[in-house]
Design a protein that fits this description.
CATH superfamily: P-loop containing nucleotide triphosphate hydrolases
Strand order of the largest sheet: 2-7-1-8-9
Largest sheet: 5 strands, parallel
Number of helices: 7
Structural class: alpha/beta
Shape: globular
Helix content: 25-40%
Mean pLDDT: 90
CATH architecture: 3-Layer(aba) Sandwich
CATH topology: Rossmann fold
Strand content: 15-25%
């Protein structure tokens, strides 16, 4: 009988430890769409809802798409150390409430985080045993098309986002996995993420995240 506590508990009929999965990539690459498809396919993960200080858009649901808070309330959360990670992105605050992650881990569920590239770097310093997945566009031209179609930015803002995207794509080397999110092939990207998680669950020496 193997008694090494670092070996995957599945060898003894148990469950592997919960995983922290960080999904990141350039603005407009389709991170939200991939996560929505994972929800529709009923992936057995806890999707962390991030806090956001921007105005709520039509069709968005508070507590589901984001926790929408005022800039003043967000700054209060920063002061009170209520956030795992936060950033000011294009003049708007975004961050991850710690209670979301702790609650999921306490119940043994895997946690999926959707954050920008700088935020992923912050989480990697805090939780290096997390799984870091970079979602990339098939090309910058395709990314430009995505940004134009969603019609939430003007031409100057799109140009700025594409410039930032070039720098962010260069940081893909800091991640564990790369998933290309082709237009009209959403299920393919979601399936690749499912395969990554399934493989990680079978590691002899699993990742163990401590926050």
């Amino acid at each position: 009988m193997i008694e090494d506590s670092t070996i995957n508990p599945i060898l003894q009929g148990g469950l592997p430890p919960p995983l922290l999965v960080v999904i990141s990539g350039p603005s407009g690459v389709g991170k939200d769409s991939v996560l929505m498809r994972m929800r529709e396919l009923e992936f057995p993960f806890h999707f962390v809802v991030t806090a956001n200080s921007r105005p709520q858009r039509p069709g968005e649901i508070d507590g589901f798409d984001y926790h929408f808070v005022s800039p003043a309330r967000f700054e209060e959360m920063i002061r009170d150390d209520e956030l795992l990670e936060w950033a000011n992105v294009y003049g708007q605050y975004k961050g991850i409430p710690k209670f979301e992650v702790r609650k999921a881990f306490a119940s043994g569920r895997d946690v999926v985080l959707r954050i920008n590239v700088d935020g992923a770097a912050t989480v990697k310093r805090i939780a290096p045993e997390a799984i870091f997945i970079f979602i990339a566009p098939a090309s910058l031209d395709e990314l430009r098309h995505r940004l134009e179609v969603r019609r939430t930015e003007n031409s100057d803002e799109i140009a700025r986002r594409l410039a930032v995207a070039r720098d962010e794509i260069a940081q893909a080397r800091l991640f564990d996995y790369l998933v290309i999110n082709h237009e009209s092939r959403l299920d393919e990207a979601a399936g690749q993420i499912r395969a990554i998680i399934a493989a990680e669950k079978q590691r002899v020496f699993p990742r163990r995240v401590t926050l």
